[in-house]
């Protein structure tokens, strides 16, 4: 039996040099279809989980984390060794952090709530009719 809290989740970059853990369940998740996410990921969208403030801890490789700071957007973090996307951080509220769902070691059990920047969606991959709320631009995250 583990002494760790049941809500703890772990994750890493592709090479495993950067590792992190969450001590609280993510608050929700969303797809982003903006052109920046398309170019950064090489796919039609990215999907990220919003972390509870103060719940993220880097357990290895924090010094390897690099960031791309696009004009007018959230800084995007990635591993300086392998280039894997890690997440992002609100430019004015550093406690607001998102993590890419592909980095979790196991199913984070988070509900995907919406799709944002649908006006920029890639024409070669139509957005599925999945019932998620859609925003043509940036979604307003409650409390942020």
Give structural notes.
- With 144 residues, the protein is mainly beta.
- It has a single domain (13-121), classed as Metal Binding Protein, Guanine Nucleotide Exchange Factor, Chain A (Beta Complex), CATH 2.170.150.
- The chain has 1 helix and 11 strands.
- The protein has one helix at residues 35-41; strands at 9-12, 19-22, 28-32, 46-50, 56-60, 65-68, 76-79, 85-89, 97-100, 112-116, 133-134.
- The chain has an 8-stranded mixed sheet with strand order 6-7-8-9-4-3-10-11. Strands 1-2-5 form a 3-stranded antiparallel sheet, with no helix packed on it.
- A hairpin with a 6-residue loop joins strand 1 (9-12) and strand 2 (19-22).
- The longest helix is centred in the first third of the chain and has 7 residues, at 35-41.
- It is globular.
- The chain starts with 8 loop residues before the first strand and ends in a 10-residue tail after the last strand.
- Residues 1-6 have low confidence and may be disordered.
Taking strands numbered 1, 2, ... along the chain, how are they ordered across the largest sheet? 6-7-8-9-4-3-10-11
State the assembly state of the protein chains. Answer: single chain
Number of DSSP strands? 11
CATH level 1 class label: Mainly Beta
Number of helices: 1
| Radius of gyration, whole Å | 15 Å
Which outline best applies? globular
Largest pleated sheet: 8 strands, mixed
The helix/strand order is EEEHEEEEEEEE
- Number of domains in the coordinates? 1
How much helicity do the residues have?
under 10%
Give the overall average pLDDT.
Answer: 91
Low-pLDDT sequence parts? 1-6
Query: CATH fold name, please?
Result: Metal Binding Protein, Guanine Nucleotide Exchange Factor, Chain A
End-to-end separation in angstroms reads 37 Å
Strand content: 25-35%
Name the structural class.
mainly beta
């Amino acid at each position: 039996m583990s002494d760790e809290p049941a809500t703890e989740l772990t994750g890493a970059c592709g090479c495993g040099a950067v590792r992190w853990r969450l001590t609280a369940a993510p608050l929700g998740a969303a797809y982003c279809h903006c052109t920046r996410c398309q170019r950064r990921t090489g796919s039609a969208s990215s999907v990220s989980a919003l972390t509870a403030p103060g719940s993220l801890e880097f357990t290895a490789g924090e010094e390897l984390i690099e960031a791309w700071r696009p004009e007018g957007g959230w800084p995007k973090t990635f591993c300086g060794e392998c280039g894997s996307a890690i997440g992002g951080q609100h430019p004015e509220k550093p406690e607001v952090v998102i993590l890419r769902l592909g980095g979790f070691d196991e199913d984070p059990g988070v509900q995907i709530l919406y799709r944002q920047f649908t006006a920029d969606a890639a024409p070669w991959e139509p957005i599925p009719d999945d019932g998620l709320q859609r925003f043509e631009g940036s979604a307003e995250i409650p409390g942020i």
